[in-house]
Structures are given as C-alpha cells and as structure tokens.
Amino acid sequence: MRPHLLRAALVLCFACTPAFAQSPAAAPAAPAAAQRASGFTTSDGVALAYTVSGQGLPCLFVHGGPGSGSEAVEALSGDLLGKHFRMIYLDQRGSGRSASDQKKDYSLDRVVQDLEELRASLKIDKWVLMPHSFGGIIATAYARKYPQRVSGMVLMNSILSLPASMESTASYGYTLLPANGRPPLDPAAPLPQRFGMVMALLGQTKQTGKLMYGDPASEARVDATRRGLAANRDFAAALFSSGAIAAYLEDLAPATAALGMPVLVVGGKEDYVVGPEHYKTFRFPKQQVLLVPGRHFSMIEQPAEVDKALAGFAASLPRP
C-alpha cells in the first residue's frame, strides 16, 4: 500500500469521526493545559501535558486518534481505571493539551521516545501500558523497544495493524450506509480508495456513531464530554501530510510473540473499527482476552465487565 494514497484516505476518515469533529489545523506552540495538568518538556523541546490519578501500579494511558488526547477518557473512565492503577494520562505531542512540534516530527520513533522520557522524568522503573485504538501501535512499538520497562499491558480496543483495521472499517462501514443511496463498492478497488469513500459517506449521512458506539447514549456521553476540551490536532495534520505515516503501517502483531510481559486484551464483539477478530493475530505468550458486547469504547460501554477484568489482572501483576 502506497503511503501517499493511504494518507489521503486517512484524512477523509479522521475528518469524519467524532474525535476529529473540529478541523485538524495546527495549534499554537504551547496550548493552555487544564488547570491540574502537569508539564513535561521532551529532549527536543516539546511541552507535553499529563495528569496523574488513582492508586496502584503506575499505568500509562496511550490514547488513539491519532491526536485525540486523553482528557475525555479520563473524565469518563478515570474513576474505574483509577481503582486499579495509578493512571498517567499523557497527551501526545501535537494532541489535546500538549504543544505542537515546530519541526513537525511525529514519527513513531519520536513518539515512543517521548513516552520513555516521561517515564524517566517520573522516576518510574516499570509501568503498565494501556493503549486504546491507534494507541496500540504506539504502545506495542514502545514495548518492543523497552520491554524491560513494561510490567504489563492492557490493550483496550487496540489496533496493531492499521491496514487490517482499515479493511474491517471499510467493509462493515459500507453496510451502515442507507442501501437506497450508497454507490457501488468495488471490492477490487485499492483499500485507501474504498476506506476513504466509506468514511466520507458515513460522515455525510451521520452514521459514523453507529460504527464507533454500540448505543446512542454512549455516543452522546462522549460527545458531551469532548465539548470544550483542548483540541490540538497537529499530530494528525502533520502525520497525514508527511512520510511519517509509513512507520505506523507495520503489522506489529508478529512482534508480540517476543513480548513476555502479562497482557490483557479487551475487545468489543462488534468493534469493526479494530476488527472483531483482530485480537486473534496477537501472539503475546502471556495473553488473556476479554470480549464484551459493544463496539470501540469497551471501558465506557461495559464498565462492570472491564472493572472485573482489570481487578483480576492488576492483582496478578508483580509488585516492586
């Protein structure tokens, strides 16, 4: 798959999803963080915002998007997650409350390095990683590079192969379009073309929520929470206008066979953004899987089941 074609399709996709309801224009170099957010400056001079809450082993939430920020998840699921871990909600460079990189370096290596520098600055020896969606690519790349720093992983509706998840999204998303108005979908057409067309039409027909959420109430809660939050979208804008996207296209599932930390995979039975059977490609040696009803936001749609699974997983992890 040629990166320039994929970039064009992804721009259409993320312009239409709820996380990117606002235009992904470049934000100021240092957007104001929430009042209780802490600050951290990377080795290349980018100011990042994060918050810490909860009790237990340290756990970094790795948000998706790309560029969606972590505030909405903290607001909606912070009480649940904080029962089991000392949660660290970082907004990645060019995302949410964090500043943009004036050099436009949003490469996977650089974003992974940001996580490692934050860990060192917090003087944490090991931490749990909890990615959501696109964050699964970032977290798995980090675990591959710094396995000695990862005590466990909780993959929430996580993507490890972006092209595979795009295929799932395009195929299922097409079925959500009104049958009497949707154009033919050529299964032999390139994936970026099919994906871009479907996501654009879902946005135009206001069907994107049906792809993301299992019920309208969950969609309404997330949308209401996102209103008024900091919305730096420079990560997304820069990623899709540069060659940086290429590294994010790697299928990281084969690499999981070499990652020996305990892993909990949480997935929605109807999460076609990721792919309902995407988890079957994972090869973590110490992997357990929880599938729950719903779609792309399991922690919001099925909090009781996720709470129970997190309690057992957190209790099983070794303490320092």
UniProtKB/TrEMBL annotation:
It comes from Massilia phyllostachyos. One of its GO terms (molecular function) is hydrolase activity. InterPro entries: AB_hydrolase_1, AB_hydrolase_fold, AB_hydrolase_sf, Peptidase_S33. Residues 1-21 form the signal peptide. Belongs to the peptidase S33 family. Pfam families: Abhydrolase_1. It comes from the Bacteria. Keywords: Hydrolase, Signal. Residues 60-303 form the AB hydrolase-1 domain. This is Alpha/beta hydrolase.
